[in-house]
Amino acid sequence: MCIIFFKFNPRPVSKNAYRLILAANRDELYHRPSKPADFWENNNEILSGLDMETGKEGGTWLGITKRGKFAALTNYLQPKIDIQVKGRGALVANFLTSDLDSFSYLKNVSADGHLYNGFNLIAADFNSSGDAMCYYGSRGAKEPLILSPGVYGLSCSLLDTPWKKLEHGKKLFADIIKKSQNISREDLVQELIKVMNNEEP
User: Fold this and answer.
1) Which biological process annotations from GO are given for this protein (predicted)?
2) Do 116 and 144 touch, CB atoms closer than 8 A?
3) Is the dihedral of CA 45, 127, 139, 150 positive or negative?
4) What is the pLDDT of residue 72?
């Protein structure tokens, strides 16, 4: 299942602390053709992987822009997928190209959430006027949630649903974060990769 762990720290006290630390995988739909993360050919401000499946080209599941916009998507686990509805990958791509702030964008998305199979969407703005990170789950509350600083885990259910695998990974992630200011960026990346490769429990 797809998993995202992240720490949101909009006002770090230490100069060498990070405003966002994130680790994510895409652990489903292996057969679907896609491009690895790179800057878009038609917009070199945006970095993401890209869906290349016929009819869903240009969608993505995680991306960031040079202007400080960030978005990530996970599918919501549901018993039956409706193949007639809109592709969810456009939700991330549309935010990255939008001029809307994260909350306003998710507010708009929430009005149309029923047009898609179940999903979770994180959207964020990192800029000089202040950082904001928001969440919307189409099978949860009607309104987007403005996230407080903290450590979060997201998989194929609502944000921080206490699934065993998610809780275990979140603890491993939090342990790495505690020492993030005392290790190099390269070592931090390697430690996060180890967390995502962990197969227990």
Assistant:
1) Golgi organization; protein secretion
2) no
3) positive
4) 97
Beta carbons of 151 and 7 less than 8 angstroms apart: yes
Q: From CA 28, how far away is CA 163, in angstroms rounded?
A: 17
pTM: 0.91
- Residue 32 corresponds to which tokens in the numbers above? 């679907």
Which amino acid is located at 166 in the chain? L
Which tokens is 146 given? Answer: 């403005």
Q: Where are the beta strands (DSSP E) in 25-164?
A: 34-40, 43-51, 62-65, 69-75, 119-125, 132-137, 145-146, 150-154
What token pair was written down for 159?
Answer: 């944000």
pLDDT for the residue 129 = 87
What span, in angstroms and rounded, lies between the C-alpha atoms of 156 and 138? 12
The list of the chain residues with pLDDT below 50 reads none
Angle (deg, nearest 10), helices 164-178 and 185-197: 160
Chain center to CA of 107 = 17
For 169-180, b/e burial (b = at least 16 CB within 10 A) is: bbebbeebbeeb
